[in-house]
Write a structure and sequence with these properties.
alpha+beta; Jelly Rolls; seven-stranded antiparallel β-sheet; six-stranded antiparallel β-sheet; 44% strand
């Protein structure tokens, strides 16, 4: 019986990562042609909460970009009444037109708590208003003024965030993983060649 492949497969299946799930989805804003400016003079942010440790994998904002050459910067800031220090940030070329656009294939790990997701665009654009399920608070940033709260559901920005819960294995899972590694070790020991020693004289 070949224990090695079976034990290894069983052990890896226990430790396999969970699938990404939607954490935040405000829905698509209804006011496509009106919104809050998102350009080199103003950034926008919205606050969200996590109930458990989570690795963010995708962040999208509903953006109307007037210039295809603009660079979109998306960041996760510490929580509070207004956005705090930046924990993670990334950039992507803005797409001209109106759509959800942003960052994918992330591995941004966050503990449970309150956070802000912020958007900036080096070009010219806006974030449309009227998301059906708005974030709790919105804010804007202007150079020299810092972050200011502008909470108003009708001005809410469109955001989609996906992630993977950072679940801690239960005792039974740990036991199965240890058993699997033990089986792998046993299989390795059984496969070691036996060397015969012959005495001469």
């Amino acid at each position: 019986m070949k224990l090695m492949p079976v034990a290894l497969a069983a052990t890896l299946s226990i430790a396999a990562p969970a699938q990404a799930a939607t954490i935040v989805d405000t829905g698509t804003p209804t006011q496509t042609y009106t919104g809050s400016a998102l350009d080199s003079d103003q950034s926008l942010a919205g606050r969200f909460s996590l109930t458990s440790a989570t690795m963010l994998t995708d962040i999208q904002g509903y953006i109307r970009s007037f210039r295809s050459s603009g660079i979109l910067t998306i960041a996760i800031n510490r929580g509070g009444n207004l956005p705090g220090s930046v924990l993670y940030s990334g950039t992507v070329a803005a797409t001209q037109g109106t759509s959800f656009q942003g960052l994918s294939n992330l591995n941004w790990m966050l503990d449970a708590g309150d956070y802000w997701v912020s958007f900036a665009n080096s070009g010219s654009g806006m974030m449309s208003r009227g998301a059906p399920n708005p974030l709790s608070v919105a804010a804007y940033w202007k150079p020299g003024q810092g972050w200011n709260s502008i909470y108003d559901p009708s001005r809410s920005i469109g955001v989609r965030i996906s992630g993977v819960p950072a679940a801690v294995p239960e005792p039974a899972t740990w036991a199965m993983m240890l058993l699997g590694f033990g089986m792998v070790g046993a299989a390795v020991r059984r496969r070691r060649p036996v060397v015969a020693t012959v005495r001469v004289g």
